Amino acid sequence: MNTAIGLVETKGLVGLVEATDAMAKAANVKVLKRVSIGGAFVTTVVQGDVGSVRAAVEAGANAASQVGDLVATHVIPRPAESLTAAFFS
What we know:
With about 90 residues, the chain is of the alpha+beta class. Helix content is about 45%, strand content about 40%. It has three helices and four strands. The chain has helices at about 15-25, 50-65, 80-89; strands at about 5-10, 30-40, 40-50, 70-75. α1 runs antiparallel to α2 (about 50-65). The two termini are about 20 Å apart.
């Protein structure tokens, strides 16, 4: 199975909650983690097959930009196992 990791980063929690909800509803993805780095920057990380993750990230980005400040999005197809273990366990 081709798994992928998708990330949506916002400035502010409200935009991130809206994005995470949209991602979970848009595609068959698993929400792995919420990451806060300070300065109101927060990221949601999802995992699933590549197509589902791409669809979820796109939906999350659209939702976040409607209610808050979208900072960045990124999809990593077939991430290294060590990456997943190091950052998202």
